[in-house]
Amino acid sequence: MAYEIGPMTLPAAKAIARWTYAGEYAVYSFRPDQETLNELMSGAYFACTTRGKELVGYFCFGEAARIPTVEADVYPNGPVDLGLGLRPDRCGRGEGAAFLRAGLVYARHAFGPQEMRLTVACFNRRAIALYTHAGFCPQRTVTHRLSNRPFSIMTRPTDP
């Protein structure tokens, strides 16, 4: 599947704000309110579409990709933080690797990082397996300040 990543648009942000994930994955759901729209339109989020312009997900970079943690100083300078979300009805259908790869390629061209970093809920074994297969390695476990759940911070070198 070929993806295109570009600036977040208001229609895409409104659609993403309404996405809800089932069960324990609900931690990844947004709230459909003005605060969410402001965050999605902040410039840190990018819409991901198919070549036919169907919205399939989003990526965010930098501070927007980090979670609030109980522990202090868990995000040292250096790596570029990557956040991502695949549309709920597309999760678990084998699209994750291509979707992640599109975000990594975009980040390499946009930010030129030497290392990428992401944060994932420890219960999300499906995502952790995907990230591990893509070369991410766990660095530390942290506690999400709002949900009190454990999350893993993972890093990987950027492809040459």
Structure annotation, total helices = 4
CATH fold annotation of the domain at 3-112: Aminopeptidase
The CATH class of the domain at 3-112, by name, is Alpha Beta
Indicate the overall shape: globular
Alpha-carbon distance between the two ends: 22 Å
User: CATH-wise, what's the superfamily of the domain at 3-112?
Assistant: Gcn5-related N-acetyltransferase (GNAT)
Rounded to an integer, what's the Rg over CA atoms? Answer: 15 Å
Strand order of the largest sheet: 1-2-3-4-5-7-6
- The number of distinct β-strands equals 7
Question: What's the rounded overall pLDDT mean?
Answer: 94
The major β-sheet equals: 7 strands, mixed
SSE run: EHHEEEHEHEE
Summing up helix and strand content along with how strands pair, one would put the structural category as alpha+beta
Q: Ranges with pLDDT <50 over ≥5 residues?
A: none
Give the second-level CATH assignment, the architecture of the domain at 3-112.
3-Layer(aba) Sandwich
Helix fraction bin: 25-40%
Beta-strand residue percentage: 25-35%
Provide key terms for this protein.
single chain, 160 residues, alpha+beta, Aminopeptidase, 4 helices, 25% helix, 29% strand
Question: What can be said about this structure in brief?
Answer:
The chain is α+β, with helices and mostly antiparallel strands. Helix content is 25%, strand content 29%.
Characterize the structure shown:
The protein contains four helices and seven strands, in the order βααβββαβαββ. The protein is globular, with a radius of gyration of 15 Å. The model has no long low-confidence stretch (mean pLDDT 94). It has helices spanning 10-17, 34-40, 96-111, 125-133, and strands at residues 3-7, 45-50, 55-61, 80-86, 115-121, 137-143, 150-157. The protein has a domain at 3-112: 3-Layer(aba) Sandwich (Aminopeptidase), CATH 3.40.630.30. 26% of the residues are buried. The longest helix is centred in the middle third of the chain and has 16 residues, at 96-111. It is an alpha+beta fold and 160 residues long. A seven-stranded mixed β-sheet has the order 1-2-3-4-5-7-6, with helices on both faces.
